[in-house]
Amino acid sequence: MPRKSAANPEDNEIKEIESIQDNKNDEIENLNRLLAAVLNYLSDDEVEVIDIEYLLENTEGLREWWNQYRERNRKKIEEEITKALGDLSIEELENLREKIKGNEKE
Fold first, then answer.
1. Looking at the record's lineage, which domain of life comes first (predicted)?
2. 32 close to 61: Cβ distance less than 8 angstroms
3. What is the pLDDT of residue 98?
């Protein structure tokens, strides 16, 4: 009885690469769809006031994409702030803290 040959590692790598490419193509198609929906809304002559909440509610997947985008951006900003604060002396940090407290009272 013939035995099955072991799976070729190169075949597995090719399948994995194809899967990644398919996922990227799906993501590109989704982003194109979201962009088209937003541009259609913005170019509608009947729209007098742009309503972002309307866009987020009525464009499938847009709110989820926006939340993910904001989260990625928040993390990037936090990293930049942490890096910048690391270069400040204790005295500079205390002065910054006092300025922030003063702005909160206004």
1. Bacteria
2. no
3. 87
Residue 2 scores a pLDDT above 60:
no
Do 59 and 34 contact (CB within 8 A), yes or no? yes
Q: Is the pTM of this model over 0.70?
A: no
| Signed CA dihedral, 90, 95, 98, 103: sign only | negative
The string of pLDDT tens digits covering residues 37-71 is 999 999 999 989 999 999 999 999 999 999 999 99
The phi, psi pair for 87, rounded to 5°, reads -85, -10
The identity of residue 69, as a single letter, is Y
Which residues have C-beta within 8 Å of that of residue 25, sequence separation ≥ 6?
A: none
Please give the C-alpha separations between residue 46 and each of 1, 6, 36, 39, 52, in angstroms, as whole numbers: 73, 63, 17, 14, 15
Question: Concatenated DSSP letters for 37-103?
Answer: HHHHHHT-TT--S--HHHHHHHSTTHHHHHHHHHHHHHHHHHHHHHHHHHTS-HHHHHHHHHHHHHH
